[in-house]
Amino acid sequence: MIRGLLGGLAALMLVAAGVFWWQGRAQTAFGGEASSLPVAEAAEAEPEDLPSADVDGMMGAAPPEATGIGRETRRFNLVDKDRDNRISRTEMLSGRARDFRKLDKDGNNLLTFDEWAHTTVDKFKGADGNADLFLTREEFAATRPKERPKPKPKCACK
Fold first, then answer.
1. Could you tell me which residue, 16 or 119, shows the higher pLDDT?
2. Angle between helices 89-103 and 71-79 (to 10 degrees)
3. What is the largest CA-CA distance in the chain?
């Protein structure tokens, strides 16, 4: 176990060293080579020729603005389809309308109890073998949920 951890740590260190080497060889942001003065010229350069550290009046690029998108904002945006920062009744109920249409078997936009409980009604009809509208113990036993298959045992091979 310790050999595995040490190997993983060594691999991470090699990857980090590679990234730093690669970044060091990267070109500047403007597409040109990184500028460097030869050592001999740097010693002979006049102080006026050296770059100034005076940054008065200079302004760098503004950092990007952070977005405050949290869980509730994402949830709101999922429902707000027209992006007007308001959720209408139609937008709120649109997801439920699809489910309602699935339940409304006869398509009359009215949901009867039998339509609402269609899975239970269908299960009852399927279990009631003699169609007497009553379930015997044997018929009721047929409505039991199917058992999930047991997971296969893990291989104990070495």
1. 16
2. 70
3. 109
Q: Is the pTM of this model over 0.70?
A: no
**Distance (Å, rounded) from C-alpha 119 to C-alpha 137?**
20
- The string of DSSP codes covering 35-81 is P---HHHHHH--TTTSPP---TT---PPPPPPP---HHHHHHHHH-T
Report for 48-52, 54-58, 102-106: range of highest mean pLDDT: 102-106
Q: What percent of the chain has pLDDT over 90?
A: 1
The torsion of the CA quartet 39, 44, 48, 53, rounded to 10 degrees, works out to 30
> What is the distance, to the nearest Å, from the Cα of residue 127 to the centroid of all Cα atoms in its chain?
42
Task: Decide: 80 and 91 in contact? Cβ < 8 Å.
Answer: yes
Name the average pLDDT for the chain.
76
